[in-house]
Design goal:
homotetramer; 132 residues; Pantoate--beta-alanine Ligase, Chain: A,domain 2; five-stranded antiparallel beta sheet; two-stranded antiparallel ribbon; 3 helices; elongated; folate biosynthesis (chains A, B, C, D)
Chain lengths: 132, 132, 132, 132
Amino acid sequence: MASDAQQACFEAGIKFGSLYHQFAGTPVSPSSARSLEAAMAESIENQPHCESVDVTIRDDRVADAIDHENGYTELTGSLMDVEMRIEYEGVTVRTRMEMENGYPLMKLVEVIDDGESRSADPAQSGDGDPNA
Amino acid sequence: MASDAQQACFEAGIKFGSLYHQFAGTPVSPSSARSLEAAMAESIENQPHCESVDVTIRDDRVADAIDHENGYTELTGSLMDVEMRIEYEGVTVRTRMEMENGYPLMKLVEVIDDGESRSADPAQSGDGDPNA
Amino acid sequence: MASDAQQACFEAGIKFGSLYHQFAGTPVSPSSARSLEAAMAESIENQPHCESVDVTIRDDRVADAIDHENGYTELTGSLMDVEMRIEYEGVTVRTRMEMENGYPLMKLVEVIDDGESRSADPAQSGDGDPNA
Amino acid sequence: MASDAQQACFEAGIKFGSLYHQFAGTPVSPSSARSLEAAMAESIENQPHCESVDVTIRDDRVADAIDHENGYTELTGSLMDVEMRIEYEGVTVRTRMEMENGYPLMKLVEVIDDGESRSADPAQSGDGDPNA
């Protein structure tokens, strides 16, 4: 069967896709950004195995994106940073979303499985174990 | 051209459709409902001519809708009451959403145009004026 | 009570807000745009009093919006033109969404009430009747 | 670093969360279900590493969910079956969503990594290797 670490990474991906696509398009301004950050985090933390969600909407980017008189814009991935921690059957997965080359890239930062941390460390890439 | 009152009612409808379909599906539990209410109201209040939005998520209905172990459900119209006030060119429109016969009905409660209130008053229904 | 024409305009606004916020954020490319147009129109046509919806996603704008290697972007109001026709108690409302000054403006094009068309005609603007 | 298989599972989860929360709440009826299925599949197939998406909206469940005169309901996980295939750096991940105990459960069906299939096979559950 799929390993617990693989299942944990799958669960982590679900939370990110959910957060992004549930809230994409939400009207936002610097004055409403704090309430939206809080709601996004608390709603996704309801999902199974989701231990913590941190959403930071960047007010400077929101202000830059407001290009009409109406004083607001619509939430996209480019306006926020997101971090999450998922726990599944003893595996901890940490994830982050940040802009890279014009694309809001969702990244696996770390997969901690039974104490063995698999972090973003290129040195581990050539060990032959298909699970390393 | 379309009257200011007609335009105001159009604007009011846009806010309701936006609120409903932006947030439908958001994971919600009694513990996360307050933050979601606040974010829904503040985000839609960003929209043009939207003076106030009041969202009450009914914790009892949320609790009833939770039918699995995961402890949350997804927001639908049946779980909340919403009121809004829109102001457009001197016209005030008040609206409300509440459940009626299994359907989350969005209603025009009152259209106040230049001081003339057109409320939900059956007595006015037979006056022949197509605009009354 | 609110006039049938006002109610019809309210209904028309609900459809627009629904369409926009339900589909904002949907991944889209020129190759997937046709299926999305069809689904957007057919889904909103389910809503009460909604007689027809026409969605045109502009492939050129989608292509311009694709600014990374992944070959797709996310649907926003700036990428499409939308027209709708709503019928309520003998009143026909025609609406359109198009970009104006960087904002996807939703417009009442025409309100036809009992044969009296109230189109976007500046000549009617000074007639004193608060409902004209 | 996180293994390719773990990254592939993460990618697979993102697609599922995206599909579910982008389209939850979409008005649907048996007559509009086919266009929605097609649009959901084609839009998510735009996402990186997503090779195929299959959405089946169950007309019988949609019809059952329609509990008012308006002839439509709003899409939820309970109304559809979804299967996906993700390919990432030589790893194939197959996933499925189906209802289990009132919850739309998203499952990893199979993770094929360098020819070694890790399927839902209970016989492998006691092998002691935390990654098996």
